[in-house]
Design a protein that fits this description.
alpha+beta, Translation, Eukaryotic Peptide Chain Release Factor Subunit 1, Chain A, 60s Ribosomal Protein L30, Chain: A, five-stranded mixed sheet
Amino acid sequence: MLDQDSIDRLRKAATGDYPVLSLYVNLEPGPEALRTVPARIKELLAHAEEESATLPRPQRISIRSDIQSLLSDIGRFGSDLGRSVATFRSSGADLDEHFTLPGPVRDRAIVDSVPYLRPLEAMIEHYPRFCVAVVGNRLASIFRFSMGELETWEEMRDEEVRKANFGGYSGYEERRVRAHSDEVIKKHYRHLGSRLADLRRADGGFDLLILGGSDAHVAGALAALPPDVANLLAGSFTIDPGMMTPSIVLALATDVAEEWEEQNEKRLVAELFDAAASGGSATLGLEGVCAAVNRRAVDVLFVQVGHAIPGSACANCGWVSCRMEPGCPVCDSTLRRVPDLVDRLGESVRSAGGTVQHILSDGPLAEVGVGAQLRYSIPMVDPT
């Protein structure tokens, strides 16, 4: 299963002077898609062979070997129909990784000195690990989902709540039982909050929390959550615990998570554009972002998910440009063409201690492609 550790392992793969062939194939459901898979893969690999035609002979031989091995493995892609796949090959560097992805990707084949990881990073962001707690009177079911699949499922049972609708002497017994029932329910909520806190702090943890149940139980559980767990709440949904299944819970929780993600992306992009418009620590557009990345000034890189944008980069010092420059202005080394400059920008930002935020929803960022929240303001220089 795809996870951040897998991406980090690929990022650190030692490939030496050998190129990496990164192949992404979207596998839509239906017999028609199954028939077109081999043709689409062959077309992508033919494009990759053309792209590698100018490489030195040992590198061309490595890519040609990767292409031949993938052509012989076309049948394995059909077993993942309805999903997507990502494959990374470099026979010269002894690299062979294959991932099944939970959502659609754009068909592409990239030949570069490093694995092309931007679609995987976007997939990780779009499918966060979330925890769902469905709360009832004395039973709470806790589900953890990762990459759209059930990871763990556990149940918590507390003391059964007795029905308190009888009188007793002057109503005393009814009040006593009702008070006991209220305390039992509150204790149940506290137990749930404590367990969620343990899961949050354990290895792996979760990125978002979603509550399910009646409005009363959701409100009660929310009030008992520790602050660090409550801060992860993405929303809630109504469900009868007696009617739930993991697939129903996943479907309802996914709707909540996607709504939360869309609203969060809109908020982040609006803050970025406000900062840029007011002359604050932000920049928009590929050229401005490249300048900020070269100065190690980017705190958060915002990337609109979409097409790859070619550019150039220095393999020696990491300097990047959105144009094909004749040489590196920093160390005078020869610049290499990179098939997706945005992916290389992300790698540079991470290596400098920054983070990357992929934006999937349409909005103003789509018009400029990339933007950056900066650690400090970069003064504008008048070229005249």
